[in-house]
Amino acid sequence: MARPTHVYEFEYVATLTGENLELLQEVASNSDNIDYGETIHVHDGTEEGVTTFTARGIESLKEFLADVRARAGGVRQFLVDCQCDPEMIERIMADEPKS
């Protein structure tokens, strides 16, 4: 299997996919949500560093979010299950398409 030669940081992935940045960060905070090896932590000299996605990681992220949106309760229930801050949930839900 070929190794990735390009990675994409969160803000760019949010712009590229049209997804809420905080939602992407919440999804990526649990390594079980994205295929193994498709997120890469980059040490950039800051204490936090940067988490990036491979191209396959972006596809995995899209697939995961499609599955979440198809479940009962959708994104809101996913965020509640992750015990997210209610204010963060409301910010993310403000960006969700109305069904």
- What form results from the Cα inertia axes? globular
Report the C-alpha radius of gyration, rounded: 14 Å
Oligomer: single chain
Q: Report the strand count.
A: 3
Mean of residue pLDDT values: 92
Stretches where pLDDT falls below 50 for ≥5 residues?
Answer: none
**What separation lies between the terminal Cα atoms?**
39 Å
What helical percentage do the residues reach?
A: 40-55%
Work out the count of structural domains.
1
Please tell me about this protein's structure:
With 99 residues, the chain is mainly alpha-helical. It has one domain. It is built from 5 helices and 3 strands; from the N terminus they run E-H-H-E-E-H-H-H. It has a 3-stranded antiparallel beta sheet with strand order 1-3-2. A hairpin with a 7-residue loop joins strand 2 and strand 3. It is globular, with a radius of gyration of 14 Å. The model has no long low-confidence stretch (mean pLDDT 92).
How would you sum up this structure in a few lines?
This protein has five helices and three strands, in the order E-H-H-E-E-H-H-H.
Could you list some keywords that capture this structure?
99 residues, mainly alpha, three-stranded antiparallel sheet, 5 helices, 10% strand, globular
SSE topology:
Elements: E1 8-9, H1 10-17, H2 21-28, E2 39-42, E3 50-53, H3 55-70, H4 74-81, H5 86-95
Antiparallel strand pairs: 1-3, 2-3
